[in-house]
Amino acid sequence: MKxxxxxxxxxxxxxxxxxxxxxxAYWGTNVYSAFNSYLGYNPLTSGPLDIxxxxxxxxxxxxxxxxxxxxxxVLPNTGRMQIYDGAILPSVGFIGMGDFTSFTPMSQLHLxxxxxxxxxxxxQLTNTTTTATGIxxxxxxxxxxxxxxxxxxxxxxxxxxxxxxxxxxxxxxxxAPSSLERMRIYAGASYVTNWTYLDDVTRVGxxxxxxxxxxxFPVSLLQLGEPSQVGYQxxxxxxxxxxxxxxxxxxxxxxxxxxxQFDQSTAIINWGDNPSDVxxxxxxxxxxxxxxxxxxxxxxxxxxxxxxxLERIWTNGNYGYMGIGGDPNWVIPSPNYYNNCGTPSSDPNxxxxxxxxxxxxxxx
Length: 364
Description:
Strand order of the largest sheet: 10-11-12-13-14-15-16
Number of helices: 2
Structural class: mainly beta
Number of strands: 20
Strand content: 25-35%
Largest sheet: 7 strands, mixed
Number of domains: 4
Shape: elongated
């Protein structure tokens, strides 16, 4: 045990003396001076083991070196890490990792690739699930060899594991826990029973209220709304390249549906999921137009709070009803209501109704 300690102290002493003109390094009580390096007990911090350098002049770093050859026959000669203070921002510690002879750390943690690493310059995080046996394991964040900034979820054992990339943000004080998942990026099949997707397709979910656990996955290229299987009741497996938006059980998909032939895709607007045998109860699809409300309220129909409704569609689940131009039997209650988008409202009762606008014209 003593022999190991002595050898360790000698190596540290060589390293510190190489960097400063006056240095002390040993295990035990050390007296702090105006210009002094120490390894051991620092009376200013009362720490059990401190490595430090003190000086009346700022800008002296602590450097960590390693040998290019086999220790102990080659002295440390390659800079690996530097702890820096004073020259950039006083009293803020900067840590530089890489060959510090080629750069000065400019942030509290600064990683620099001075030799062109074939694997890029990344921070890599792994655990017992992902294992740590290769480059393509765990989560990596950094710069590629072509200098693209990348966040990479590499997977895990066998490179076949599929883990999502999640973004969490603090929740409102009225909710628990203190943070919730707000966005998820995922590849592959959803975990919903009997749904089949192509392998390695992209899925991005942005959740309105977030989710505390992680049971639900985005079901289209982009999903906006709630991460709840209840809201997937109107979903179909062909809703792939598009945006799926859901709230409670209501939903809309705007995107493409792949056809039977190559290069034969159909553009689709699909909504759901509550039909009704009675008008004014089921879910509607409405085409609406709005302008700036403070400027045009009372001047243009589209300046109202609800905006100008141009068309609405509803269904009983077997047949569709479409109305264009509004309901001629609906009496406008005030200058701020010019259409049926708000409340009260009236659905068309025929397969197609085309009605002229009401006689009221705010510009006449």
